[in-house]
Amino acid sequence: MAARTGKDFLDRLADSRPTVHIQGETLTGGIQHHPAFRNVVRTYAELYDLQHSAEHKDVLTHPSPTSGEPVATSFLAPTAPDELVKRREAFTVWAEYSNGMLGRTGDYLNSGLMAMATAADWFAEADPAFGDNIRRYYEKVREEDLLLSHTLIPPQVNRAVAGPRQAGGSVTARIVREDDNGVVIRGARMLATIAPFADELLVLPSTLLRGAPEDRPHSYALAVPMDAEGLRCIAREPLDHGLPRHDHPLASRFDEPDCVVVFDDVHVPYERCFLLGDVDRCNGLFARTSAVVHMSHQVVTRTVAKTEYVLGLVSLLTEAIGIEGYQHVQDDVAEVITTLEMLRAFLRAAEADAAVNEFGVLTPAWAPLNAARNLYPKLYQRFPQILRKLGAAGLMATPTGFDVIGPAAADIDVYLQSATLTGAERVKLFRLLWDTCGSAFSGRQALYEYYFFGDPVRMAGAYVASYDREPYKARVRAFLDGYGANAATDVRAGRGPA
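Structure (tokenized):
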């Protein structure tokens, strides 16, 4: 099967039987019809339909190297600059469709899986079977256009100790036994976004394994179908409350569910295992395969689209209520513009300085992408703050779409008009503003961006530790050495600058 349509996606989901706990219910199928998921599922179906639209199919697909049929561009292993650009253009189409609000569209993990599969020889160094497994799995996901979720971290039981040691080692998902056909996983992981309607779950290693004997059962990389026996999801409260799109234009379309996944002795066949018991290789998986780089390429493309959306929104707001001329308002708008141009520069630099990695894949430069992924979690927090400040009391005095067409319509037209909009138009704009900066959906977006790649403080520590500062230290030492020999003489003589 080639690149899926929305109907293909929905038909496969209808045949799936994942176990999902949501607000006191237990679902074993029918995810696409449940009020908590049906709207975002429909949005994902629309994304798949774009792959077949006349406008976007040439960007969103490319010929499969095995079947010749069109498959998603996010599976393309780039070897030339134009292919890297095509990948970014494909990321952009999907990102703009949701204004960057969907953080786990298929192109994110497709990119990581592509990088891992092209590094199959690295997996094979641990076991030849692992190299074959990752390559075959990538081909399966590519040819069937499967939607992946993933899970990385242990539940938050006691963060004072490492994940494998929390609750005496009885909580975090781990291998409890092996048999002739595979391994058995018991325990839990988080945070599996979109898991209820994904086809497959990648269970990938945390980077915090320390190499102690008790870490080996937690050292693995594997994949399971979302409806595997013994696998279940505990989903958070939905932020899509089934209210009209007019009033919740983002939450009613883009609320991706986040889940804790429980492995109740889930059997994983060996052909679905990519690493087992190899602590060092698990810790190095994302970096050594360039998966983190290609995933970050997608992420920075999405954050560009999201920041463009925020700039458009804040600009309509300042025009609507006539505050564009105030200098403090211009300062806030300039902050959004600066963030946007910085992200664009990072993205351009990453592509301009791309180089072929050891596995023959043209890979974006890591330094600018790493800078972006360390900055954006903090920069994004300012956007809701700016919108709330500029929208002010008007955000709290906004009625609903029912009021716009109800008995209050005449009053709304008179008293809620703005400098550039009718009352009804202003209400519609402010409902979008509220869903971006003040609603529960907006709060989840801010938290999600802040922790997208992990704890920003720990990321900063890793960033500093990995950054080569020696050339800059040497330069300063050389400068000091250039006049240091005469420093005492100069001081005694009272010599100042020439």
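The chain has a mean pLDDT of 94. The chain has two domains: 6-287, 290-470.
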